[in-house]
Amino acid sequence: MNLNATLLAQMVVFFGFVLFTMKFVWPPLTKALDERAKKIADGLAAADKAKTDLALAEKKVVEELRKARESGAELRTSAEKQGAQLIEEARAEAQRIISAAREAAESEAAVASQRAKEVLRDQVAQLAVAGAERILRREINSQVHADLLANLKQELN
Protein backbone atom coordinates (compact mmCIF):
# COMPACT_ATOMS: atom_id res chain seq x y z
CA MET A 1 0.00 0.00 0.00
CA ASN A 2 1.11 3.37 -0.76
CA LEU A 3 1.65 5.96 1.94
CA ASN A 4 -0.05 8.62 -0.15
CA ALA A 5 -3.10 6.46 -0.78
CA THR A 6 -3.34 5.62 2.95
CA LEU A 7 -3.00 9.23 3.90
CA LEU A 8 -5.57 10.19 1.31
CA ALA A 9 -8.00 7.48 2.51
CA GLN A 10 -7.53 8.56 6.12
CA MET A 11 -8.18 12.15 5.13
CA VAL A 12 -11.40 11.20 3.32
CA VAL A 13 -12.57 9.11 6.28
CA PHE A 14 -11.62 11.93 8.68
CA PHE A 15 -13.54 14.52 6.64
CA GLY A 16 -16.49 12.12 6.40
CA PHE A 17 -16.38 11.70 10.15
CA VAL A 18 -16.21 15.50 10.64
CA LEU A 19 -19.15 16.02 8.25
CA PHE A 20 -21.16 13.28 9.94
CA THR A 21 -20.34 14.76 13.37
CA MET A 22 -21.21 18.30 12.22
CA LYS A 23 -24.48 17.14 10.63
CA PHE A 24 -25.79 14.62 13.17
CA VAL A 25 -23.84 14.76 16.44
CA TRP A 26 -22.89 18.41 16.86
CA PRO A 27 -26.41 20.00 16.64
CA PRO A 28 -27.90 17.86 19.46
CA LEU A 29 -24.79 18.54 21.59
CA THR A 30 -24.98 22.29 20.99
CA LYS A 31 -28.74 22.19 21.57
CA ALA A 32 -28.23 20.36 24.88
CA LEU A 33 -25.47 22.77 25.88
CA ASP A 34 -27.65 25.78 24.94
CA GLU A 35 -30.57 24.36 26.94
CA ARG A 36 -28.28 23.74 29.89
CA ALA A 37 -26.90 27.29 29.62
CA LYS A 38 -30.46 28.64 29.41
CA LYS A 39 -31.48 26.65 32.51
CA ILE A 40 -28.44 27.93 34.38
CA ALA A 41 -29.19 31.51 33.28
CA ASP A 42 -32.85 31.10 34.29
CA GLY A 43 -31.76 29.69 37.65
CA LEU A 44 -29.38 32.59 38.21
CA ALA A 45 -32.10 35.08 37.21
CA ALA A 46 -34.55 33.37 39.57
CA ALA A 47 -31.93 33.48 42.33
CA ASP A 48 -31.37 37.20 41.68
CA LYS A 49 -35.13 37.79 41.65
CA ALA A 50 -35.50 35.80 44.87
CA LYS A 51 -32.69 37.82 46.45
CA THR A 52 -34.41 41.05 45.38
CA ASP A 53 -37.76 39.77 46.66
CA LEU A 54 -36.13 38.78 49.93
CA ALA A 55 -34.62 42.25 50.30
CA LEU A 56 -38.03 43.83 49.58
CA ALA A 57 -39.71 41.47 52.03
CA GLU A 58 -37.15 42.34 54.69
CA LYS A 59 -37.79 46.05 54.06
CA LYS A 60 -41.54 45.44 54.34
CA VAL A 61 -41.03 43.51 57.59
CA VAL A 62 -38.89 46.31 59.01
CA GLU A 63 -41.52 48.87 57.95
CA GLU A 64 -44.37 46.81 59.41
CA LEU A 65 -42.45 46.40 62.67
CA ARG A 66 -41.86 50.15 62.78
CA LYS A 67 -45.54 50.81 62.15
CA ALA A 68 -46.51 48.27 64.81
CA ARG A 69 -44.15 49.89 67.32
CA GLU A 70 -45.54 53.33 66.52
CA SER A 71 -49.08 52.04 66.78
CA GLY A 72 -48.28 50.36 70.08
CA ALA A 73 -46.69 53.55 71.38
CA GLU A 74 -49.74 55.56 70.29
CA LEU A 75 -52.07 53.06 71.96
CA ARG A 76 -50.00 53.11 75.14
CA THR A 77 -49.95 56.92 75.16
CA SER A 78 -53.69 57.04 74.54
CA ALA A 79 -54.31 54.53 77.31
CA GLU A 80 -52.10 56.49 79.71
CA LYS A 81 -53.96 59.71 78.87
CA GLN A 82 -57.31 58.00 79.30
CA GLY A 83 -56.16 56.48 82.59
CA ALA A 84 -54.97 59.86 83.85
CA GLN A 85 -58.26 61.42 82.79
CA LEU A 86 -60.24 58.70 84.61
CA ILE A 87 -58.11 59.23 87.72
CA GLU A 88 -58.71 62.98 87.59
CA GLU A 89 -62.44 62.44 87.11
CA ALA A 90 -62.47 60.02 90.06
CA ARG A 91 -60.58 62.53 92.20
CA ALA A 92 -63.00 65.32 91.26
CA GLU A 93 -65.97 63.06 92.02
CA ALA A 94 -64.42 62.06 95.36
CA GLN A 95 -63.82 65.73 96.22
CA ARG A 96 -67.43 66.53 95.33
CA ILE A 97 -68.70 63.66 97.48
CA ILE A 98 -66.43 64.67 100.36
CA SER A 99 -67.60 68.31 100.09
CA ALA A 100 -71.24 67.26 100.04
CA ALA A 101 -70.71 64.95 103.02
CA ARG A 102 -68.84 67.69 104.89
CA GLU A 103 -71.63 70.20 104.20
CA ALA A 104 -74.26 67.68 105.31
CA ALA A 105 -72.29 66.90 108.48
CA GLU A 106 -71.79 70.60 109.25
CA SER A 107 -75.50 71.26 108.69
CA GLU A 108 -76.43 68.29 110.86
CA ALA A 109 -73.97 69.42 113.51
CA ALA A 110 -75.44 72.94 113.45
CA VAL A 111 -78.96 71.54 113.84
CA ALA A 112 -77.83 69.23 116.64
CA SER A 113 -76.01 72.13 118.33
CA GLN A 114 -79.13 74.29 118.08
CA ARG A 115 -81.25 71.50 119.61
CA ALA A 116 -78.70 70.98 122.36
CA LYS A 117 -78.77 74.72 123.14
CA GLU A 118 -82.56 74.67 123.32
CA VAL A 119 -82.50 71.62 125.60
CA LEU A 120 -79.87 73.27 127.77
CA ARG A 121 -81.94 76.48 127.93
CA ASP A 122 -84.96 74.47 129.03
CA GLN A 123 -82.90 72.65 131.64
CA VAL A 124 -81.32 75.90 132.87
CA ALA A 125 -84.77 77.46 133.10
CA GLN A 126 -86.09 74.47 135.02
CA LEU A 127 -83.06 74.53 137.33
CA ALA A 128 -83.51 78.27 137.88
CA VAL A 129 -87.18 77.79 138.71
CA ALA A 130 -86.34 74.86 140.97
CA GLY A 131 -83.64 76.93 142.64
CA ALA A 132 -85.97 79.87 143.06
CA GLU A 133 -88.64 77.53 144.42
CA ARG A 134 -86.28 76.12 146.98
CA ILE A 135 -85.15 79.55 147.93
CA LEU A 136 -88.67 80.75 148.37
CA ARG A 137 -89.86 77.37 149.61
CA ARG A 138 -93.05 77.76 147.88
CA GLU A 139 -94.54 76.56 144.64
CA ILE A 140 -94.87 79.01 141.78
CA ASN A 141 -98.06 78.56 139.84
CA SER A 142 -97.78 77.00 136.38
CA GLN A 143 -98.73 80.12 134.43
CA VAL A 144 -96.08 82.15 136.18
CA HIS A 145 -93.70 79.25 135.77
CA ALA A 146 -94.29 79.15 131.99
CA ASP A 147 -93.86 82.92 131.74
CA LEU A 148 -90.60 82.74 133.71
CA LEU A 149 -89.29 79.99 131.41
CA ALA A 150 -90.18 81.96 128.28
CA ASN A 151 -88.51 85.11 129.68
CA LEU A 152 -85.42 83.10 130.64
CA LYS A 153 -85.23 81.61 127.13
CA GLN A 154 -85.42 85.08 125.62
CA GLU A 155 -82.62 86.34 127.88
CA LEU A 156 -80.38 83.38 127.01
CA ASN A 157 -80.76 83.97 123.26
UniProtKB/TrEMBL annotation:
Keywords: ATP synthesis, Cell membrane, CF(0), Coiled coil, Hydrogen ion transport, Ion transport, Membrane, Transmembrane, Transmembrane helix, Transport. Its main location: membrane. Pfam families: ATP-synt_B. Residues 47-122 form a coiled coil. The chain crosses the membrane at residues 6-26. The keyword Cell membrane applies. It is found in: Cell membrane; Endomembrane system. It is a single-pass membrane protein. InterPro entries: ATP_synth_B-like_membr_sf (IPR028987), ATP_synth_b/b'su_bac/chlpt (IPR002146), ATP_synth_F0_bsu_bac (IPR005864), ATP_synthase_B_chain (IPR050059). Gene3D superfamilies: 6.10.250.1580. F-type ATPases have 2 components, F(1) - the catalytic core - and F(0) - the membrane proton channel. F(1) has five subunits: alpha(3), beta(3), gamma(1), delta(1), epsilon(1). F(0) has three main subunits: a(1), b(2) and c(10-14). The alpha and beta chains form an alternating ring which encloses part of the gamma chain. F(1) is attached to F(0) by a central stalk formed by the gamma and epsilon chains, while a peripheral stalk is formed by the delta and b chains. F-type ATPases have 2 components, F(1) - the catalytic core - and F(0) - the membrane proton channel. F(1) has five subunits: alpha(3), beta(3), gamma(1), delta(1), epsilon(1). F(0) has four main subunits: a(1), b(2) and c(10-14). The alpha and beta chains form an alternating ring which encloses part of the gamma chain. F(1) is attached to F(0) by a central stalk formed by the gamma and epsilon chains, while a peripheral stalk is formed by the delta and b chains. Belongs to the ATPase B chain family. Component of the F(0) channel, it forms part of the peripheral stalk, linking F(1) to F(0). The b'-subunit is a diverged and duplicated form of b found in plants and photosynthetic bacteria. This is ATP synthase subunit b. It comes from Uliginosibacterium silvisoli.
